[in-house]
Amino acid sequence: MRPWPPGVRTRFKGSRLAGLANPLIALCILACAPRGPEALPDSARWVIEGVEQALARRDFVAAHGYVDFRFRLEESLDELWRGGPEAAREDLVKRLEEMFDETSEAQRERYVGKPMMRQVQRRQGRHLWVVSKPATPDGEPSDGQNQKRSKSFAWHYRLTPRGTSWAITQREYLVDGMPSDSTRFWPMARNQIAEKFGRQPTLSELAANLSTVTGTMRIRRLKVPELNGSGNPAQTTP
Q1: Is residue 37 in some structural domain?
Q2: Three-state DSSP class for 152?
Q3: Distance between CA atoms of 70 and 90, rounded to whole angstroms?
Q4: CATH code of the domain in which 209 resides
Q5: Enclosing domain of residue 203
Q6: Does residue 35 belong to any structural domain of this protein?
């Protein structure tokens, strides 16, 4: 076997390494390149469109079918929920449904009848946060006059896998950059009832006394102008 001429073998090995390195560099560039927002799955879009359309026609029973209220209650109340009787659970589910409807009605003029734009906000473990907001600014003047615009609005939905689809397990709203915070509702309700009992309430006591505190309790009092410009405090509910 004839030996390689001086320097030829080194150049050959270098060219082979260069040939291997170029695809690796290309793959690294592709992997490290900034990515656009995640596409919203059709199954998730269907859930959000379904609940908003049901709320628009005030079909609250249909709207509730897209929401897993029990998931949210177990997450919020933890051992208190799991150790409580079924009758108390059913009472709390009913109350949470009522608060969901009240919030939907309070914000009705900000989203009903408007084309909505929906996009993925972020992933949180197995959950998917999706923003749904009017596609055009609410209250945009059309006659060119210097009219005061209404505040911007958006729903923020947390979707959790349920079978082959999704369930809404948390909903917040954003008005002119100020967010609601439903995570604070249950701790505050429990503490207010505990002040009356002198101890933390059981699940049955929480269910029986919840209506006595929700009328006076506000988690966040946001000064949200009405569409005609007058101020009105908005209630944050789950």
Answers
A1: no
A2: coil
A3: 9
A4: 3.10.450
A5: 42-137+149-234
A6: no
- pTM of the predicted model as reported, rounded to 2 decimal places: 0.72
- For the segment 8-29, the average pLDDT, to the nearest whole number, is 53
Cα distance between residue 89 and residue 205, in whole Å = 11
Number of domains making up the chain:
1
Q: Cα–Cα distance between 172 and 66 in angstroms, integer?
A: 15
In angstroms, the CA 75 to CA 115 distance is 33
pLDDT tens-digit map of 186-233: 999 999 999 999 999 999 999 999 988 876 554 433 333 344 444 443
Given its phi and psi angles, is residue 22 left (phi above 0), alpha (psi -120 to 50 degrees) or beta?
A: alpha
Kindly state whether residue 18 falls inside one of the protein's structural domains.
no
At 82 the pLDDT is: 95
76-105 burial code (b ≥16 CB/10 A, e <16): bbeebbeebeeebbebbbebbbebbbebbe
Examine residue 224 and state whether it is found in any structural domain, yes or no: yes
Half-sphere exposure of 24 (CA within 13 A, CB side): 5
For residue 130, give the nearest of 101, 168, 163 by alpha carbon.
168
Per-residue pLDDT reduced to its tens digit, 46-81:
999 999 999 999 999 999 999 999 999 999 999 999
